[in-house]
Design brief:
alpha/beta, 2 domains, 10 strands, Rossmann fold, 650 residues, single chain, 59% helix, four-stranded antiparallel beta sheet
Length: 650
Protein backbone atom coordinates (compact mmCIF):
# COMPACT_ATOMS: atom_id res chain seq x y z
CA UNK A 1 0.00 0.00 0.00
CA UNK A 2 2.85 2.35 0.72
CA UNK A 3 4.52 2.22 -2.68
CA UNK A 4 2.14 4.58 -4.37
CA UNK A 5 1.37 6.96 -1.57
CA UNK A 6 1.18 10.57 -2.62
CA UNK A 7 3.06 10.18 -5.93
CA UNK A 8 0.81 9.84 -8.92
CA UNK A 9 -2.06 9.17 -6.60
CA UNK A 10 -4.58 10.89 -8.88
CA UNK A 11 -3.83 8.34 -11.61
CA UNK A 12 -4.72 5.39 -9.43
CA UNK A 13 -8.25 3.96 -9.53
CA UNK A 14 -10.51 5.18 -6.75
CA UNK A 15 -11.82 2.38 -4.55
CA UNK A 16 -15.45 1.94 -5.25
CA UNK A 17 -18.07 2.04 -2.51
CA UNK A 18 -21.60 0.76 -2.82
CA UNK A 19 -24.21 3.45 -3.13
CA UNK A 20 -26.24 3.76 0.03
CA UNK A 21 -29.90 4.60 0.07
CA UNK A 22 -31.23 6.91 2.71
CA UNK A 23 -32.85 5.06 5.56
CA UNK A 24 -36.57 5.51 5.95
CA UNK A 25 -37.54 8.31 8.27
CA UNK A 26 -34.25 10.23 8.07
CA UNK A 27 -35.90 13.47 6.92
CA UNK A 28 -38.62 13.11 9.55
CA UNK A 29 -36.02 12.67 12.27
CA UNK A 30 -34.11 15.72 11.08
CA UNK A 31 -37.30 17.77 11.29
CA UNK A 32 -37.88 16.51 14.84
CA UNK A 33 -34.55 18.01 15.88
CA UNK A 34 -36.16 21.43 15.49
CA UNK A 35 -39.18 20.77 17.72
CA UNK A 36 -37.73 22.46 20.84
CA UNK A 37 -37.26 25.64 18.81
CA UNK A 38 -40.56 25.73 16.95
CA UNK A 39 -41.57 29.15 18.32
CA UNK A 40 -38.30 30.74 17.22
CA UNK A 41 -38.76 29.14 13.82
CA UNK A 42 -42.30 30.50 13.61
CA UNK A 43 -40.91 34.02 14.04
CA UNK A 44 -38.21 33.29 11.45
CA UNK A 45 -40.76 32.07 8.92
CA UNK A 46 -42.98 35.13 9.53
CA UNK A 47 -40.03 37.48 8.97
CA UNK A 48 -39.04 35.56 5.86
CA UNK A 49 -42.52 35.88 4.37
CA UNK A 50 -42.64 39.62 5.08
CA UNK A 51 -39.22 40.08 3.50
CA UNK A 52 -40.26 38.06 0.44
CA UNK A 53 -43.29 40.29 -0.12
CA UNK A 54 -41.19 43.43 0.30
CA UNK A 55 -38.73 42.20 -2.32
CA UNK A 56 -41.56 42.08 -4.88
CA UNK A 57 -43.00 45.46 -3.87
CA UNK A 58 -39.93 47.41 -5.02
CA UNK A 59 -40.19 46.44 -8.74
CA UNK A 60 -43.91 47.25 -8.69
CA UNK A 61 -43.12 50.69 -7.28
CA UNK A 62 -40.49 51.10 -10.00
CA UNK A 63 -43.12 50.21 -12.61
CA UNK A 64 -45.35 52.98 -11.25
CA UNK A 65 -42.44 55.43 -11.31
CA UNK A 66 -41.90 54.81 -15.04
CA UNK A 67 -45.48 54.48 -16.23
CA UNK A 68 -46.98 56.94 -13.75
CA UNK A 69 -44.81 59.59 -12.17
CA UNK A 70 -42.42 60.08 -15.08
CA UNK A 71 -45.05 59.91 -17.80
CA UNK A 72 -47.37 62.26 -15.89
CA UNK A 73 -44.43 64.46 -14.74
CA UNK A 74 -45.79 64.26 -11.20
CA UNK A 75 -42.99 65.35 -8.80
CA UNK A 76 -44.92 64.54 -5.62
CA UNK A 77 -45.72 61.03 -6.77
CA UNK A 78 -42.10 60.53 -7.82
CA UNK A 79 -40.87 61.58 -4.39
CA UNK A 80 -43.37 59.41 -2.52
CA UNK A 81 -42.62 56.39 -4.70
CA UNK A 82 -38.83 56.69 -4.35
CA UNK A 83 -39.11 57.26 -0.60
CA UNK A 84 -41.33 54.20 -0.45
CA UNK A 85 -38.71 52.18 -2.35
CA UNK A 86 -36.03 53.24 0.14
CA UNK A 87 -38.23 52.42 3.13
CA UNK A 88 -39.07 49.01 1.67
CA UNK A 89 -35.35 48.31 1.11
CA UNK A 90 -34.48 49.40 4.66
CA UNK A 91 -37.30 47.35 6.15
CA UNK A 92 -36.29 44.27 4.18
CA UNK A 93 -32.68 44.69 5.33
CA UNK A 94 -33.71 45.02 8.97
CA UNK A 95 -36.00 42.02 8.83
CA UNK A 96 -33.22 40.03 7.13
CA UNK A 97 -30.80 40.87 9.94
CA UNK A 98 -33.19 39.80 12.70
CA UNK A 99 -34.17 36.67 10.80
CA UNK A 100 -30.51 35.73 10.21
CA UNK A 101 -29.71 36.15 13.92
CA UNK A 102 -32.62 34.00 15.06
CA UNK A 103 -32.03 31.38 12.39
CA UNK A 104 -28.32 31.05 13.11
CA UNK A 105 -29.04 30.73 16.81
CA UNK A 106 -31.57 27.96 16.21
CA UNK A 107 -29.30 26.10 13.79
CA UNK A 108 -26.25 26.17 16.06
CA UNK A 109 -28.40 25.20 19.05
CA UNK A 110 -29.66 22.16 17.16
CA UNK A 111 -26.04 21.27 16.31
CA UNK A 112 -25.13 21.61 19.99
CA UNK A 113 -28.05 19.40 21.02
CA UNK A 114 -27.18 16.80 18.40
CA UNK A 115 -23.53 16.67 19.43
CA UNK A 116 -24.46 16.30 23.11
CA UNK A 117 -27.03 13.65 22.23
CA UNK A 118 -24.49 11.59 20.27
CA UNK A 119 -21.83 11.91 22.98
CA UNK A 120 -24.32 11.01 25.72
CA UNK A 121 -25.57 7.99 23.78
CA UNK A 122 -22.04 6.75 23.09
CA UNK A 123 -21.33 6.76 26.83
CA UNK A 124 -24.25 4.37 27.33
CA UNK A 125 -22.99 1.79 24.81
CA UNK A 126 -21.29 -1.32 26.09
CA UNK A 127 -17.55 -1.83 26.16
CA UNK A 128 -17.78 -4.19 23.18
CA UNK A 129 -18.76 -1.30 20.88
CA UNK A 130 -15.54 0.55 21.70
CA UNK A 131 -13.35 -2.54 21.41
CA UNK A 132 -14.50 -3.17 17.85
CA UNK A 133 -14.76 0.47 16.67
CA UNK A 134 -11.77 2.65 15.90
CA UNK A 135 -11.54 5.71 18.12
CA UNK A 136 -10.93 7.93 15.08
CA UNK A 137 -14.20 6.85 13.51
CA UNK A 138 -16.07 7.70 16.69
CA UNK A 139 -14.37 11.08 16.87
CA UNK A 140 -15.16 11.73 13.22
CA UNK A 141 -18.88 11.17 13.72
CA UNK A 142 -19.02 13.30 16.86
CA UNK A 143 -17.08 16.19 15.34
CA UNK A 144 -16.80 16.04 11.54
CA UNK A 145 -20.20 14.55 10.75
CA UNK A 146 -22.09 16.83 13.11
CA UNK A 147 -20.17 19.84 11.77
CA UNK A 148 -21.08 18.78 8.23
CA UNK A 149 -24.75 19.24 9.07
CA UNK A 150 -24.25 22.95 9.75
CA UNK A 151 -25.45 23.99 6.29
CA UNK A 152 -28.72 22.13 6.73
CA UNK A 153 -29.28 23.20 10.31
CA UNK A 154 -28.37 26.89 10.04
CA UNK A 155 -29.53 27.90 6.56
CA UNK A 156 -31.92 25.39 5.10
CA UNK A 157 -35.22 26.35 6.71
CA UNK A 158 -34.90 30.12 6.37
CA UNK A 159 -33.40 30.03 2.89
CA UNK A 160 -35.84 27.44 1.63
CA UNK A 161 -38.86 29.28 2.99
CA UNK A 162 -37.46 32.61 1.80
CA UNK A 163 -36.66 31.39 -1.69
CA UNK A 164 -39.99 29.59 -1.99
CA UNK A 165 -41.91 32.67 -0.86
CA UNK A 166 -39.95 34.92 -3.21
CA UNK A 167 -40.48 32.55 -6.13
CA UNK A 168 -44.23 32.31 -5.51
CA UNK A 169 -44.62 36.04 -4.99
CA UNK A 170 -42.57 36.73 -8.09
CA UNK A 171 -44.61 34.32 -10.22
CA UNK A 172 -47.84 35.95 -9.08
CA UNK A 173 -46.50 39.43 -9.79
CA UNK A 174 -45.17 38.38 -13.22
CA UNK A 175 -48.52 36.86 -14.19
CA UNK A 176 -50.27 40.06 -13.17
CA UNK A 177 -47.92 42.09 -15.36
CA UNK A 178 -47.88 39.85 -18.47
CA UNK A 179 -48.80 36.23 -18.97
CA UNK A 180 -46.90 36.12 -22.30
CA UNK A 181 -43.62 37.18 -20.70
CA UNK A 182 -44.29 34.81 -17.77
CA UNK A 183 -44.46 31.83 -20.12
CA UNK A 184 -41.03 32.70 -21.49
CA UNK A 185 -39.55 33.11 -18.02
CA UNK A 186 -41.01 29.89 -16.59
CA UNK A 187 -40.49 27.57 -19.57
CA UNK A 188 -37.12 26.23 -18.37
CA UNK A 189 -38.08 25.57 -14.73
CA UNK A 190 -39.21 21.90 -15.18
CA UNK A 191 -35.93 21.06 -16.90
CA UNK A 192 -33.96 22.59 -14.03
CA UNK A 193 -35.94 20.58 -11.47
CA UNK A 194 -35.38 17.30 -13.33
CA UNK A 195 -31.61 17.69 -13.53
CA UNK A 196 -31.41 18.93 -9.94
CA UNK A 197 -32.92 15.69 -8.65
CA UNK A 198 -30.39 13.62 -10.62
CA UNK A 199 -27.47 15.73 -9.46
CA UNK A 200 -28.69 15.51 -5.85
CA UNK A 201 -28.67 11.72 -5.86
CA UNK A 202 -25.11 11.58 -7.16
CA UNK A 203 -23.82 14.18 -4.71
CA UNK A 204 -25.51 12.39 -1.81
CA UNK A 205 -23.64 9.19 -2.64
CA UNK A 206 -20.34 11.06 -2.93
CA UNK A 207 -20.99 12.82 0.39
CA UNK A 208 -21.37 9.48 2.15
CA UNK A 209 -18.13 8.21 0.60
CA UNK A 210 -16.33 11.43 1.53
CA UNK A 211 -17.44 11.19 5.16
CA UNK A 212 -16.25 7.59 5.36
CA UNK A 213 -12.91 8.58 3.84
CA UNK A 214 -12.63 11.46 6.32
CA UNK A 215 -13.38 9.08 9.18
CA UNK A 216 -10.64 6.74 7.96
CA UNK A 217 -8.17 9.63 7.75
CA UNK A 218 -9.13 10.83 11.22
CA UNK A 219 -8.79 7.33 12.64
CA UNK A 220 -5.34 6.87 11.09
CA UNK A 221 -4.24 10.27 12.38
CA UNK A 222 -5.46 9.48 15.89
CA UNK A 223 -3.67 6.13 15.93
CA UNK A 224 -0.35 7.16 14.41
CA UNK A 225 0.02 10.55 16.15
CA UNK A 226 -0.86 9.32 19.63
CA UNK A 227 2.03 8.82 22.03
CA UNK A 228 1.85 5.05 21.64
CA UNK A 229 1.55 5.27 17.84
CA UNK A 230 4.56 7.58 17.50
CA UNK A 231 6.65 5.36 19.77
CA UNK A 232 5.68 2.29 17.75
CA UNK A 233 6.57 3.91 14.43
CA UNK A 234 9.90 5.25 15.69
CA UNK A 235 11.03 2.04 17.37
CA UNK A 236 10.21 0.01 14.25
CA UNK A 237 11.41 2.63 11.77
CA UNK A 238 8.05 2.78 9.98
CA UNK A 239 7.60 6.57 9.69
CA UNK A 240 7.94 6.46 5.89
CA UNK A 241 5.30 3.75 5.52
CA UNK A 242 2.98 5.59 7.88
CA UNK A 243 3.35 8.77 5.83
CA UNK A 244 2.66 6.92 2.57
CA UNK A 245 -0.52 5.36 3.97
CA UNK A 246 -1.61 8.77 5.23
CA UNK A 247 -0.94 10.22 1.78
CA UNK A 248 -3.04 7.48 0.18
CA UNK A 249 -5.97 8.23 2.47
CA UNK A 250 -5.53 11.97 1.96
CA UNK A 251 -5.43 11.63 -1.83
CA UNK A 252 -8.59 9.52 -1.80
CA UNK A 253 -10.39 12.08 0.36
CA UNK A 254 -9.25 14.91 -1.91
CA UNK A 255 -10.43 13.15 -5.06
CA UNK A 256 -13.81 12.42 -3.51
CA UNK A 257 -14.14 16.03 -2.34
CA UNK A 258 -13.32 17.34 -5.82
CA UNK A 259 -15.88 15.03 -7.39
CA UNK A 260 -18.45 16.03 -4.79
CA UNK A 261 -17.87 19.74 -5.34
CA UNK A 262 -17.82 19.51 -9.13
CA UNK A 263 -20.79 17.19 -9.53
CA UNK A 264 -23.54 19.19 -11.17
CA UNK A 265 -21.46 22.34 -11.42
CA UNK A 266 -21.59 22.33 -15.22
CA UNK A 267 -25.37 22.12 -15.01
CA UNK A 268 -25.54 25.04 -12.61
CA UNK A 269 -23.16 27.07 -14.79
CA UNK A 270 -25.65 26.63 -17.65
CA UNK A 271 -28.45 27.67 -15.30
CA UNK A 272 -26.61 30.80 -14.23
CA UNK A 273 -25.81 31.64 -17.85
CA UNK A 274 -29.46 31.35 -18.79
CA UNK A 275 -30.45 33.47 -15.80
CA UNK A 276 -28.06 36.17 -17.00
CA UNK A 277 -29.38 36.00 -20.57
CA UNK A 278 -33.07 35.83 -19.60
CA UNK A 279 -33.59 39.62 -19.21
CA UNK A 280 -32.41 40.12 -22.79
CA UNK A 281 -35.07 37.67 -24.00
CA UNK A 282 -37.72 39.55 -22.04
CA UNK A 283 -36.65 42.85 -23.57
CA UNK A 284 -36.68 41.25 -27.03
CA UNK A 285 -40.14 39.72 -26.75
CA UNK A 286 -41.61 42.62 -24.81
CA UNK A 287 -40.10 45.09 -27.26
CA UNK A 288 -41.55 43.24 -30.26
CA UNK A 289 -45.00 43.27 -28.61
CA UNK A 290 -44.65 46.99 -27.94
CA UNK A 291 -43.43 47.80 -31.46
CA UNK A 292 -46.11 45.71 -33.17
CA UNK A 293 -48.95 47.30 -31.21
CA UNK A 294 -50.61 50.64 -32.03
CA UNK A 295 -49.40 53.54 -29.94
CA UNK A 296 -51.13 53.53 -26.57
CA UNK A 297 -52.74 50.10 -27.10
CA UNK A 298 -49.84 47.76 -26.32
CA UNK A 299 -50.46 45.04 -23.74
CA UNK A 300 -46.91 45.63 -22.45
CA UNK A 301 -45.57 49.01 -21.37
CA UNK A 302 -42.02 50.17 -20.79
CA UNK A 303 -42.67 50.12 -17.06
CA UNK A 304 -43.98 46.56 -17.34
CA UNK A 305 -40.76 45.38 -18.97
CA UNK A 306 -38.54 47.16 -16.42
CA UNK A 307 -40.57 45.79 -13.51
CA UNK A 308 -40.73 42.33 -15.10
CA UNK A 309 -36.97 42.04 -15.58
CA UNK A 310 -36.42 43.24 -12.01
CA UNK A 311 -38.90 40.66 -10.69
CA UNK A 312 -37.42 38.00 -12.96
CA UNK A 313 -34.04 38.56 -11.34
CA UNK A 314 -35.68 38.11 -7.95
CA UNK A 315 -37.26 34.89 -9.28
CA UNK A 316 -34.32 33.29 -11.03
CA UNK A 317 -31.63 33.67 -8.40
CA UNK A 318 -33.84 32.45 -5.51
CA UNK A 319 -34.90 29.58 -7.77
CA UNK A 320 -31.25 28.78 -8.42
CA UNK A 321 -30.56 28.95 -4.69
CA UNK A 322 -33.52 26.71 -4.01
CA UNK A 323 -32.31 24.11 -6.49
CA UNK A 324 -28.75 24.26 -5.16
CA UNK A 325 -30.02 23.98 -1.60
CA UNK A 326 -32.00 20.91 -2.60
CA UNK A 327 -28.76 19.31 -3.77
CA UNK A 328 -26.97 20.30 -0.55
CA UNK A 329 -29.80 18.99 1.61
CA UNK A 330 -29.91 15.61 -0.09
CA UNK A 331 -26.13 15.38 0.31
CA UNK A 332 -26.30 16.32 3.99
CA UNK A 333 -28.99 13.73 4.68
CA UNK A 334 -26.34 11.08 4.00
CA UNK A 335 -24.35 12.57 6.89
CA UNK A 336 -27.40 12.49 9.15
CA UNK A 337 -27.76 8.80 8.29
CA UNK A 338 -24.26 8.15 9.69
CA UNK A 339 -25.12 10.03 12.88
CA UNK A 340 -28.44 8.24 13.31
CA UNK A 341 -26.67 4.89 12.89
CA UNK A 342 -24.92 5.52 16.20
CA UNK A 343 -28.05 6.90 17.87
CA UNK A 344 -29.99 3.78 16.83
CA UNK A 345 -27.58 1.41 18.59
CA UNK A 346 -29.26 -0.03 21.65
CA UNK A 347 -27.09 -0.19 24.80
CA UNK A 348 -26.65 -3.78 25.96
CA UNK A 349 -26.04 -2.74 29.56
CA UNK A 350 -28.96 -0.74 30.96
CA UNK A 351 -30.19 0.37 34.36
CA UNK A 352 -33.19 -1.44 35.86
CA UNK A 353 -36.59 0.22 35.79
CA UNK A 354 -36.75 0.11 39.60
CA UNK A 355 -33.17 0.02 40.91
CA UNK A 356 -32.27 -1.10 44.40
CA UNK A 357 -30.52 1.60 46.39
CA UNK A 358 -28.11 0.78 49.20
CA UNK A 359 -26.18 3.58 50.94
CA UNK A 360 -22.48 3.16 50.22
CA UNK A 361 -21.60 3.09 53.90
CA UNK A 362 -23.88 0.04 54.34
CA UNK A 363 -22.26 -2.02 51.57
CA UNK A 364 -20.33 -4.92 53.14
CA UNK A 365 -18.76 -6.18 49.91
CA UNK A 366 -19.90 -9.81 49.96
CA UNK A 367 -19.43 -11.06 46.36
CA UNK A 368 -21.12 -14.17 44.95
CA UNK A 369 -20.64 -15.68 41.49
CA UNK A 370 -23.48 -18.19 41.03
CA UNK A 371 -23.20 -20.50 37.99
CA UNK A 372 -22.05 -17.59 35.78
CA UNK A 373 -21.61 -18.31 32.07
CA UNK A 374 -20.55 -15.97 29.28
CA UNK A 375 -19.49 -15.99 25.64
CA UNK A 376 -17.97 -13.37 23.39
CA UNK A 377 -19.22 -12.37 19.95
CA UNK A 378 -17.66 -12.84 16.54
CA UNK A 379 -17.13 -9.11 16.08
CA UNK A 380 -14.80 -8.91 19.08
CA UNK A 381 -12.24 -11.63 18.33
CA UNK A 382 -9.14 -9.48 18.01
CA UNK A 383 -7.29 -8.65 21.24
CA UNK A 384 -7.46 -4.98 22.07
CA UNK A 385 -5.92 -2.73 24.71
CA UNK A 386 -8.51 -1.92 27.34
CA UNK A 387 -8.53 -0.53 30.83
CA UNK A 388 -8.21 -4.04 32.21
CA UNK A 389 -5.77 -6.05 30.21
CA UNK A 390 -3.26 -4.14 28.06
CA UNK A 391 -4.24 -6.37 25.15
CA UNK A 392 -3.46 -9.69 26.83
CA UNK A 393 -7.05 -10.93 26.62
CA UNK A 394 -9.66 -10.21 23.97
CA UNK A 395 -12.46 -7.85 24.90
CA UNK A 396 -15.65 -8.83 23.13
CA UNK A 397 -19.34 -8.26 23.13
CA UNK A 398 -21.55 -11.09 24.23
CA UNK A 399 -23.71 -12.97 21.76
CA UNK A 400 -22.20 -15.63 19.55
CA UNK A 401 -19.60 -18.06 20.88
CA UNK A 402 -16.04 -17.49 19.70
CA UNK A 403 -12.53 -17.73 21.02
CA UNK A 404 -10.92 -16.28 24.09
CA UNK A 405 -7.39 -17.68 23.97
CA UNK A 406 -5.18 -20.07 22.04
CA UNK A 407 -2.86 -21.56 24.60
CA UNK A 408 -4.96 -24.62 25.44
CA UNK A 409 -5.47 -26.80 22.35
CA UNK A 410 -7.36 -29.63 24.00
CA UNK A 411 -10.82 -28.41 23.01
CA UNK A 412 -12.86 -30.06 20.34
CA UNK A 413 -14.37 -26.83 18.99
CA UNK A 414 -14.09 -23.07 19.19
CA UNK A 415 -17.48 -22.91 20.86
CA UNK A 416 -16.19 -25.06 23.70
CA UNK A 417 -12.80 -23.33 23.89
CA UNK A 418 -14.05 -19.81 24.36
CA UNK A 419 -16.93 -19.92 26.74
CA UNK A 420 -16.67 -18.90 30.36
CA UNK A 421 -18.19 -20.96 33.09
CA UNK A 422 -20.22 -22.01 34.73
CA UNK A 423 -18.20 -20.29 37.45
CA UNK A 424 -19.23 -20.13 41.11
CA UNK A 425 -17.33 -18.67 44.05
CA UNK A 426 -17.78 -16.29 46.98
CA UNK A 427 -15.47 -13.51 48.16
CA UNK A 428 -16.16 -12.68 51.79
CA UNK A 429 -16.06 -9.06 53.03
CA UNK A 430 -12.60 -7.84 53.94
CA UNK A 431 -10.77 -10.78 52.28
CA UNK A 432 -8.42 -11.11 49.31
CA UNK A 433 -9.49 -13.45 46.51
CA UNK A 434 -7.00 -14.08 43.72
CA UNK A 435 -7.76 -15.29 40.19
CA UNK A 436 -4.78 -17.06 38.60
CA UNK A 437 -4.28 -19.16 35.51
CA UNK A 438 -2.74 -19.18 32.02
CA UNK A 439 -3.28 -16.27 29.66
CA UNK A 440 -6.74 -16.49 28.11
CA UNK A 441 -8.17 -18.56 30.92
CA UNK A 442 -10.97 -16.09 31.70
CA UNK A 443 -9.55 -14.09 34.61
CA UNK A 444 -10.08 -10.70 32.97
CA UNK A 445 -13.51 -11.77 31.75
CA UNK A 446 -14.52 -12.38 35.36
CA UNK A 447 -13.36 -8.85 36.14
CA UNK A 448 -15.44 -7.45 33.28
CA UNK A 449 -18.51 -9.24 34.59
CA UNK A 450 -18.03 -8.09 38.18
CA UNK A 451 -17.77 -4.47 37.00
CA UNK A 452 -20.77 -5.07 34.72
CA UNK A 453 -18.95 -4.06 31.57
CA UNK A 454 -20.71 -7.16 30.22
CA UNK A 455 -23.68 -9.14 31.48
CA UNK A 456 -23.50 -12.94 31.89
CA UNK A 457 -25.56 -15.14 29.61
CA UNK A 458 -26.81 -17.11 32.60
CA UNK A 459 -26.28 -17.21 36.32
CA UNK A 460 -25.91 -14.18 38.55
CA UNK A 461 -23.32 -12.01 40.27
CA UNK A 462 -24.43 -10.64 43.62
CA UNK A 463 -23.12 -8.05 46.04
CA UNK A 464 -24.52 -8.41 49.55
CA UNK A 465 -27.14 -10.78 48.15
CA UNK A 466 -28.39 -8.38 45.46
CA UNK A 467 -27.90 -9.13 41.76
CA UNK A 468 -25.66 -6.38 40.38
CA UNK A 469 -28.15 -5.93 37.51
CA UNK A 470 -30.56 -4.54 40.11
CA UNK A 471 -28.22 -1.62 40.85
CA UNK A 472 -27.83 1.52 38.78
CA UNK A 473 -24.55 1.39 36.93
CA UNK A 474 -23.47 4.61 38.61
CA UNK A 475 -24.12 3.15 42.07
CA UNK A 476 -22.26 -0.05 41.18
CA UNK A 477 -19.30 2.02 39.99
CA UNK A 478 -19.21 3.74 43.41
CA UNK A 479 -19.03 0.35 45.13
CA UNK A 480 -16.14 -0.99 43.05
CA UNK A 481 -12.71 0.56 42.61
CA UNK A 482 -10.46 -0.67 39.82
CA UNK A 483 -6.65 -0.55 39.66
CA UNK A 484 -5.27 -1.87 36.38
CA UNK A 485 -1.94 -2.74 34.88
CA UNK A 486 -2.33 -0.04 32.21
CA UNK A 487 -3.13 3.17 34.07
CA UNK A 488 -4.95 5.85 32.11
CA UNK A 489 -4.40 9.46 33.13
CA UNK A 490 -6.06 12.46 31.55
CA UNK A 491 -3.99 15.18 29.88
CA UNK A 492 -4.45 17.57 32.77
CA UNK A 493 -2.98 18.30 36.20
CA UNK A 494 -2.21 15.78 38.92
CA UNK A 495 -4.89 17.44 41.03
CA UNK A 496 -7.61 16.96 38.41
CA UNK A 497 -6.57 13.35 37.80
CA UNK A 498 -6.86 12.60 41.50
CA UNK A 499 -10.22 14.36 41.79
CA UNK A 500 -11.59 12.15 39.04
CA UNK A 501 -12.18 9.67 41.87
CA UNK A 502 -13.87 12.28 44.07
CA UNK A 503 -14.68 15.61 42.37
CA UNK A 504 -15.37 17.42 45.65
CA UNK A 505 -12.24 16.21 47.45
CA UNK A 506 -10.46 18.83 49.55
CA UNK A 507 -6.73 19.54 49.25
CA UNK A 508 -6.17 17.82 52.59
CA UNK A 509 -7.92 14.69 51.29
CA UNK A 510 -5.79 14.78 48.13
CA UNK A 511 -2.60 14.99 50.15
CA UNK A 512 -3.69 12.22 52.52
CA UNK A 513 -4.50 9.90 49.61
CA UNK A 514 -1.22 10.72 47.87
CA UNK A 515 0.74 10.05 51.07
CA UNK A 516 -1.01 6.70 51.51
CA UNK A 517 -0.15 5.84 47.90
CA UNK A 518 3.54 6.72 48.44
CA UNK A 519 3.43 9.49 45.82
CA UNK A 520 3.03 12.78 47.76
CA UNK A 521 6.74 13.57 48.06
CA UNK A 522 7.26 13.11 44.34
CA UNK A 523 4.27 15.35 43.49
CA UNK A 524 5.45 18.03 45.93
CA UNK A 525 8.87 18.03 44.23
CA UNK A 526 7.35 18.67 40.79
CA UNK A 527 7.70 22.22 39.33
CA UNK A 528 4.01 23.03 39.90
CA UNK A 529 3.23 20.48 42.58
CA UNK A 530 -0.31 19.14 42.30
CA UNK A 531 -0.97 21.51 39.39
CA UNK A 532 1.68 19.84 37.22
CA UNK A 533 0.25 18.59 33.91
CA UNK A 534 0.99 14.89 33.45
CA UNK A 535 0.88 14.90 29.62
CA UNK A 536 -0.92 12.65 27.13
CA UNK A 537 -1.99 9.47 28.95
CA UNK A 538 0.39 10.49 31.76
CA UNK A 539 3.51 9.73 29.73
CA UNK A 540 5.49 12.46 31.49
CA UNK A 541 5.50 10.13 34.50
CA UNK A 542 7.04 6.71 34.91
CA UNK A 543 4.91 3.59 35.01
CA UNK A 544 5.28 3.29 38.77
CA UNK A 545 4.37 6.94 39.31
CA UNK A 546 1.25 6.59 37.18
CA UNK A 547 0.25 3.50 39.13
CA UNK A 548 0.60 5.24 42.47
CA UNK A 549 -1.48 8.19 41.26
CA UNK A 550 -4.13 5.68 40.14
CA UNK A 551 -4.06 4.06 43.59
CA UNK A 552 -4.44 7.47 45.26
CA UNK A 553 -7.37 8.17 42.93
CA UNK A 554 -9.10 4.97 44.04
CA UNK A 555 -8.34 5.77 47.69
CA UNK A 556 -10.19 9.06 47.29
CA UNK A 557 -13.13 7.17 45.79
CA UNK A 558 -13.16 4.93 48.90
CA UNK A 559 -15.00 1.90 47.42
CA UNK A 560 -16.01 -1.17 49.40
CA UNK A 561 -14.75 -3.57 46.73
CA UNK A 562 -11.40 -3.52 44.90
CA UNK A 563 -10.73 -5.14 41.55
CA UNK A 564 -6.99 -5.34 40.86
CA UNK A 565 -5.50 -6.33 37.54
CA UNK A 566 -1.87 -7.04 38.48
CA UNK A 567 -0.45 -3.57 38.98
CA UNK A 568 3.21 -4.51 39.43
CA UNK A 569 3.98 -7.08 36.76
CA UNK A 570 5.98 -4.73 34.50
CA UNK A 571 7.64 -2.49 37.11
CA UNK A 572 11.10 -2.32 38.62
CA UNK A 573 11.75 -3.64 42.11
CA UNK A 574 11.60 -0.24 43.87
CA UNK A 575 8.36 0.78 42.16
CA UNK A 576 6.87 -2.63 42.88
CA UNK A 577 7.70 -2.37 46.57
CA UNK A 578 6.21 1.14 46.83
CA UNK A 579 3.05 0.07 45.03
CA UNK A 580 2.72 -3.06 47.18
CA UNK A 581 2.88 -0.85 50.26
CA UNK A 582 0.23 1.46 48.77
CA UNK A 583 -1.98 -1.46 47.81
CA UNK A 584 -1.73 -2.91 51.30
CA UNK A 585 -3.19 0.31 52.71
CA UNK A 586 -5.81 0.42 49.98
CA UNK A 587 -6.93 -3.19 50.55
CA UNK A 588 -7.30 -2.85 54.30
CA UNK A 589 -10.90 -3.56 55.32
CA UNK A 590 -12.08 -3.96 51.71
CA UNK A 591 -13.14 -7.00 49.69
CA UNK A 592 -10.43 -7.46 47.06
CA UNK A 593 -10.50 -9.51 43.88
CA UNK A 594 -7.06 -9.63 42.27
CA UNK A 595 -6.38 -10.81 38.73
CA UNK A 596 -2.87 -12.12 39.30
CA UNK A 597 -0.07 -12.69 36.82
CA UNK A 598 2.65 -12.67 39.49
CA UNK A 599 1.90 -15.29 42.11
CA UNK A 600 4.22 -13.51 44.54
CA UNK A 601 1.56 -10.82 44.94
CA UNK A 602 -1.23 -13.21 46.01
CA UNK A 603 0.49 -15.89 48.07
CA UNK A 604 -1.12 -14.50 51.22
CA UNK A 605 -4.65 -14.47 49.73
CA UNK A 606 -7.39 -16.09 51.82
CA UNK A 607 -8.46 -17.99 48.69
CA UNK A 608 -6.85 -18.50 45.30
CA UNK A 609 -9.04 -19.51 42.36
CA UNK A 610 -7.26 -21.34 39.55
CA UNK A 611 -8.87 -20.89 36.12
CA UNK A 612 -8.30 -22.74 32.88
CA UNK A 613 -10.21 -22.50 29.60
CA UNK A 614 -12.93 -20.38 31.20
CA UNK A 615 -13.51 -22.87 34.02
CA UNK A 616 -12.75 -22.67 37.72
CA UNK A 617 -10.71 -25.84 38.19
CA UNK A 618 -9.10 -25.45 41.64
CA UNK A 619 -9.46 -23.32 44.74
CA UNK A 620 -7.65 -23.04 48.06
CA UNK A 621 -4.80 -21.28 49.82
CA UNK A 622 -1.29 -21.12 48.42
CA UNK A 623 -0.04 -24.03 50.52
CA UNK A 624 -3.09 -26.15 49.74
CA UNK A 625 -2.81 -25.60 45.99
CA UNK A 626 0.91 -26.32 45.90
CA UNK A 627 0.20 -29.79 47.23
CA UNK A 628 -3.06 -30.49 45.37
CA UNK A 629 -3.06 -28.58 42.03
CA UNK A 630 -0.71 -29.59 39.24
CA UNK A 631 -1.61 -26.47 37.23
CA UNK A 632 -0.96 -24.08 40.11
CA UNK A 633 2.26 -25.88 40.98
CA UNK A 634 3.42 -25.58 37.35
CA UNK A 635 2.62 -21.85 37.29
CA UNK A 636 4.48 -21.39 40.56
CA UNK A 637 7.55 -23.30 39.40
CA UNK A 638 7.67 -21.40 36.12
CA UNK A 639 7.86 -18.12 38.02
CA UNK A 640 10.02 -19.03 41.00
CA UNK A 641 12.23 -21.85 39.71
CA UNK A 642 12.56 -21.82 35.91
CA UNK A 643 13.05 -18.09 35.44
CA UNK A 644 15.81 -17.66 38.06
CA UNK A 645 17.61 -20.61 36.53
CA UNK A 646 17.31 -19.05 33.11
CA UNK A 647 18.70 -15.75 34.39
CA UNK A 648 21.62 -17.59 35.92
CA UNK A 649 22.40 -19.25 32.57
CA UNK A 650 22.27 -15.98 30.65
Amino acid sequence: MGSGGGRGGFNRPLPSAPARKLRRGTLRRVVQLYRPYRWQLTVVVALVLVTAVLNVVTPLLLRQVIDGALVERDRAELIWLTVGMMLVAAGAGGFNLVQAYLNTGVGLSVMRDLRIRVYSHLQKLSLSFFTRTRTGDIQSRVSNDVASTELVLTDTISNSVSNTAIVLASVVAMLLISWELSLVALAMVPIFVFFTVRVGRKRRRLTGESQRALAELTARTGETLSVSGVMLAKTYGREKEQLERFEDDNVRLTRLSIRQQMTGRSFFVIVQTFFTMAPALIWLIGGLILLDSPVGESRVSLGDMVAFTAIQTRLLFPLSGLLNRGVDVTSSLAVFDRIFEYLDMEPRITDPAQPIEIPLERVRGDIQFDEVTFRYSESDRAPVVTAFNNGTEPAREQSEPVGDGAEEPEHESLDEAFKLGPVSFEARPGTLTALVGPSGSGKTTAGYLLSRLYDPISGSIKIDGVDIREFRQRDLARMIGVVTQETFLLHTSVRENLRYGKPDATDDELIAAAQAAQIHDLIAAMPNGYDTVVGERGYRLSGGERQRIAIARVMLKDPRILLLDEATSSLDTLSERLIQQALSKLMAGRTTVAIAHRLSTVIAAQQILVMRNGMLVERGTHDELLSSSDLYKRLYEEQFISLPSLRAIT
